[in-house]
Fold this sequence. Notes:
By secondary structure, this protein is of the alpha+beta class. The protein is 38% helix and 23% strand. The chain contains 4 helices and 6 strands, in the order αββββαββαα. It has helices at 5-15, 60-65, 95-127, 132-147, and strands at residues 21-26, 29-34, 37-44, 49-54, 70-75, 78-86. A 6-stranded antiparallel β-sheet has the order 1-2-3-4-6-5. The longest helix has 33 residues, at 95-127. The termini are far apart.
Amino acid sequence: MAVSKEFADYCCDLLAGVGPCVAKRMFGGWGVSVDGMSIAWLLDLGHGETLWLKANDQTAAVFRQAGCGQFQYKAKGQLKSVNYFAAPEDALESAPSMLPWARLALQAAVAAQALKMAKSTKATKAAQPAAAKPRVAAKKTAARAASAPLRTGRTAAKKPASTSSKTLKTAKLPK
């Protein structure tokens, strides 16, 4: 079942206490983000339109204690779950009631982004050459420079068209 735009707009109003929310279509439902970080999914899994809030290992316990169901789906005959939990029914009544839950979702999104950035930085550092490699490249550059003709910064005058290269003599430069 598809989730209505009206429900997406309503959920964005509920979650707006943590920042301007943007709802975008995804998986037949909607994804809600704040500052480019996903904080919620809006999906209908056959039980009506549901607001699923992002969680992580630290915040999932709070959702479980409140009796919130975890997002589950079947893949290849096996039941799988992700760290999104249904918002508590009473929190769907007003933005002030939703605010603590929205903060938990944003906290999980910020932590996920920080982890992603740390992995990205680590991957970038791993992809960079080791400290010894630039030295090898520097040695090669130095060797090429040593074998290259000496350049003084002066440009040679163009030879006249009638003069052959054998008759031209190179001028000696002052030391």
